[in-house]
Amino acid sequence: MDTDPPLQLRVFDLNCWAIRYLSKLRQERIGLIGDTLSQEGFDLALLQEVWSERDYCELKQKLTAPYPYSHYFKSGVIGSGLCVFSRYPILDTFLYQYSLNGYPYMLQHGDWFCGKAVGLLVIKICGIMCHVYVTHLHAEYCRDKDAYLPHRVVQAWELAQFIQHTSKGADVVLLGGDLNMHPGDVGIRLLRDWTGLRDSFADTERFEGCEDGCTLVPANCFTVKEELQPFPLGIRIDYILYKGLSHFVVKCDSLVTTTGTAPGKSIPYSDHEAVTATLCVKRREEAKASSGSAVEPGLVDVVNEARTEVRVGLHAAEHQRYSNGRMAILALLLLLLQAAMGLSSLVGWDSPQPFPKFSFSLLSLLATVVLLLSMVLYVFHTIEVRMLQGTEEQMRLALQALQDKLSSM
Amino acid sequence: MDTDPPLQLRVFDLNCWAIRYLSKLRQERIGLIGDTLSQEGFDLALLQEVWSERDYCELKQKLTAPYPYSHYFKSGVIGSGLCVFSRYPILDTFLYQYSLNGYPYMLQHGDWFCGKAVGLLVIKICGIMCHVYVTHLHAEYCRDKDAYLPHRVVQAWELAQFIQHTSKGADVVLLGGDLNMHPGDVGIRLLRDWTGLRDSFADTERFEGCEDGCTLVPANCFTVKEELQPFPLGIRIDYILYKGLSHFVVKCDSLVTTTGTAPGKSIPYSDHEAVTATLCVKRREEAKASSGSAVEPGLVDVVNEARTEVRVGLHAAEHQRYSNGRMAILALLLLLLQAAMGLSSLVGWDSPQPFPKFSFSLLSLLATVVLLLSMVLYVFHTIEVRMLQGTEEQMRLALQALQDKLSSM
Predict the structure, then answer these.
(1) Could you list the active site residues of A?
(2) Any residues with CB less than 8 A from the CB of A289 and at least 6 apart, and which?
(3) pLDDT tens across B363-383, in order?
(4) Residue A401 and residue B74: Cβ atoms within 8 Å?
(5) Testing the interface with B: which of A72, A84, A168, A391 to mutate, by most B Cβ within 10 A?
(6) What pLDDT score was predicted for residue A297?
(7) Cβ–Cβ gap B76/A104 under 8 Å
(8) CB-CB neighbours of A239 under 10 Å
(9) pLDDT digits (tens, 9 = 90+) for A155-184
(10) Is the pLDDT confidence value at A287 over 80?
(11) Is residue B25 pLDDT above 60, yes or no?
(12) Could you give the count of Cα atoms lying within 13 Å of A52 in the half-sphere of its Cβ?
């Protein structure tokens, strides 16, 4: 068995930035992406931000021959945006929606409406069981004052946990997606250390593309230059991560990113650069012990750091909940006061100078709207508080288990 | 190794019906449950509907000695109500929230606010890796016209998928909880056939308790007798299911339910009967092939039946979404009309008989509230439609994979 030739897997990953009516040159770019996928004949193409199912269907129609198997993960109001095209049969799929994903009232950001999630696909390639994960985490809109950091850390933790719990039967684990985290961020360290996934950029034998493997670069005509000002080379937020389990070992032979435009074209595929990894999967001579038994020494620190971020988020969420509760009570008091005034005027206890009816009605309109919105937001932030508390407790349990393991080593 | 003595596991399962201010004799019953758990010294106690964390803390404090390990799963607005007490260390936990769980506006039912979920606990017992699942599915309020059936079928499908995907590394799988499904319902058949889990009532060697293993019986003083009228013996909706994987085989030696009151007491633990299973876990001489390779012949029919229910739910959800969209448009039109009338009166184009200002304002208040609510509900039902479409698509893929497997057998 050890003489089986190694399996070569070519994996393509791209955040397509395909928002109907908003993304520039969407149709041309979707056409271009389809053409490239068709010509290149990758083994797997992991796409994010394909928000419109019509775009997915267009791609699917074009790619039936080179990629007979595909899947679109539905979730949220406008769909998860996640889809996968595969040369090999997809045996099973499973979707995990992150418990926290921004705020519905942040309409200008809109992440909440996408129902951000991680999709799992079970794909058997030449007898090797591959668990392929595709995801897209909450965006970072302001690095200095990142209100979404706790949510993203929770997402990274849930992603790590989901991968660990669902990959026990796999030979090879692959994760591709826009993680919206820089390589040194706490979330990505947590994900890598918890799961043992390797970063194709850090481990590749050959690399070609943007400096430091960046995937959001100033050279791309669609990127917002002001946002990239603190990072002259750009930032790396799109990843292909992998690991081999038990009898298999995976290496990254080469990694290629586009460099601001699609190869041979004048426009890029997207505002993100595409990442293509060529992985080599080899059967190991001796089965490796399950990764669950080895503990990275720095893991305790990373989980602690992540837990601190979750706690910060918890305080903010509790404060928001409190504010909304107070606002709801004030609006309710105002309505009750108005009701009392209305009733008193009905029974003839009119004050000498009655409140003008029109302003009175407008005020009650405002109070009702505020009451309704505050109540909905109170419920929303209560769910947020619960989930942050739950994650914090889970991390505490994980730390305890880690420390027990380390002390028994 | 085959000479290892078999492991005996005593598992207790109970829906505690512990809603603060609403459930009768809550504090007495929680005290009683704590006393029983303490005296009996089960290996695992899987509890549902412990809605108040104060009740959980009270139980935890009382049970520290016999059950040093415990976990409460937080989710939704009021918590998932799920908790577990264990004699053995809990190594890891993971929560999966069902994507569909009723409607927030059905306040009288309230399931939506609980964030119904399945909790996974990884527990190592005498070297045997046990994956313990505890869950509580959406209630059935009217069996003849069950508006929640599609949601419950989706929950059963997600539960089955979650168990299948997360139990690959387990030796023993245990599921306990209030599934809110009768033994012959499509959801429970789907769950059992998809996962290969065995029903402790159907397979037990000795049974003691209510006839047919019922767990909601007229003899219980807290049950609503009218609801049980079509079922004179009661109904069975609380289950302990199990299976052994690879090297292990699990049998149910005995199953006991309470019969309307707690043993030796005048009141019951809850409106549900408690279920206690004594399981025997034995090492198998030869490892069994992974259950993934065997296909139950009736599974295709069950998945088809479930898919039909999901489709029915999809039509209903699409209709709801359409109604809410239409209502939002009407409210918006009314508001625009009022704005135009208001503007026209401001610029002096007053009609000879102006609309009374007070009614005018009341009408705009009503239109604004309707617009807001309809918009929120439109978004909510759009998410519902997406999730039902996604599940339907997943089931289609599963059917295809099943048929491929069956044809290759």
Answers:
(1) 272
(2) none
(3) 888 898 899 899 999 999 999
(4) no
(5) A168
(6) 75
(7) no
(8) 26
(9) 999 999 999 999 998 999 999 999 999 999
(10) no
(11) yes
(12) 14
Q: Look up residue A125 and give its two tokens.
A: 């390639």
Tokens of B146: 């069950």
Which of A 161-180 lie inside 8 A of B, CB atoms?
161-162, 165-166, 168-169
pLDDT in tens, B78-109: 888 999 999 999 999 999 999 999 998 888 88
Q: Interface pTM (ipTM) of the complex?
A: 0.90
Give the chain A residue whose CA is nearest to the CA of B94: A161
Residues of B with catalytic annotation?
272
| pLDDT band at residue B235 under the 50/70/90 scheme | very high
* Cβ–Cβ gap A95/B390 under 8 Å: yes
Q: What residues 172-231 of chain A have any CB closer than 8 A to a CB of chain B?
A: none
CB contact under 8 A, B357 and A357: yes
pLDDT of amino acid A291:
47
The pTM for the full model equals: 0.92
